Amino acid sequence: MEIAIIAHDGKKADMVQFLMEHKELLKAKGINLISTGTTGSKVEAAGLNVHRFLSGPLGGDAQIAARVAEGKTGMVIFFRDPLEKHPHEPDIFMLMRLCDVYNVPLATNPATAGLLIKSA
To answer: SMART domains, alphabetically (predicted)?
Structure first.
């Protein structure tokens, strides 16, 4: 299964921590991670394998949305920072909308992501 991971700047550390806590489970289930560029670089620095796309504001969110629409990505974990404004909000909403259109599980916080990862 392919899982997309994305985190706003204020949530990147939370994403790395979440993935490290679930590292063995991801490995045991053979999960392939894809990510937007900056999030992916933080995840790689922590020692995990991830295929990186462009940074979110440069089109990475849209690249992942396309993979959702193509049926390649089976789950999206997007740790959003609800207290900050983001210049690429239209791309974020497009990704979230496509998850709904294609019935792809979407987690926007660690509690929900934990439940989804365990059921993957």
So the answer is: MGS
